[in-house]
UniProtKB/TrEMBL annotation:
Organism annotation: Streptomyces cacaoi
PANTHER family: AB HYDROLASE SUPERFAMILY PROTEIN C4A8.06C (PTHR48081), KYNURENINE FORMAMIDASE (PTHR48081:SF33)
Lineage: Bacteria, Bacillati, Actinomycetota, Actinomycetes, Kitasatosporales
The protein, known as: Esterase
Keyword Hydrolase: yes
Domain BD-FAE-like, chain residue ranges per copy: 78-177
Keyword field contains Hydrolase: yes
InterPro entries the UniProt entry points to: AB_hydrolase_fold, BD-FAE-like_dom, GDXG_lipolytic_enzyme
Keyword annotations: Hydrolase
Amino acid sequence: MTAAAPGSIPDPDSSLTDAELDTAYNVQRGVGDRLFGQLMARYRDESERAVAGLPGHAGLVHDERSGERLDVWGTDGGAPRPVFVFLHGGYWRALSRADSSFMARTLYDNGAATVVPDYTLAPHASLEEIVRQARAAVAWVHRHGRAHGLDPERIVVGGSSAGGHLTGMLMVDGWQRHFGLPEDVVKAAMPFSGLYDLRPMPRLYVNDWLHLDTERAAALSPLLLPATRHCPAVVTVAEHDGTGFLAQSRRFHARRPGAELRVVPGRNHYDVVLDLTDPASAVSTTLLELLHSV
């Protein structure tokens, strides 16, 4: 698959009015402020519960340039474990690694480890810099993971919402050589409710902190970037997600070699990823299958 020029793949959102575009992508409004607040609190509560007493290493610097840190959870001194690198959401300006380790105990109990990096939030960092930091976190796992109980040859990446976008940017070609990494450093991926085509962003309220123009938005869109390597992936989205996120997930799935699409029934944009707290859920089962197949 070759790189796409900004205009070579049609942007279905270009025909929408500003009000229609806001409806498609303003998922916080879609769930309401009360439920949104409850779910954000649950992210933190479930994360604290998951890592309580869990072996690991917290607060390790993964990127010397920015000083950003990550946490490693679920290693116990035995053989290096396959690792899930999870990139949090928050429309690139909110949340942190402290809200994002809720899957760590499920994975630990099933033979895998979890890495949750921080990245500098917008507008304090450009989106290009945020992408670089996400890639630096994967580079850290590959170079230093073995010393912390991680298998650098079994890295699976994932993330929710903005973290789904960052996951997509880890699935594309070319960035690996800039970090001295093998092209297949990412063995599989599971993005949740991601944004893969950022061309609508300059017309949305999120541009108050992203400050994107059309050209930069296209250059930061994984749907428009080359991905020639077969990378097993499960593109996951909620049944009751925003219509923009549903449509983008379907389009991204269609353009990614080795990808399958999973629409999770009964879930919304924010609670779909919390199914990873339940080892019996379909999304947990799928993630564990990915981790143990690479």
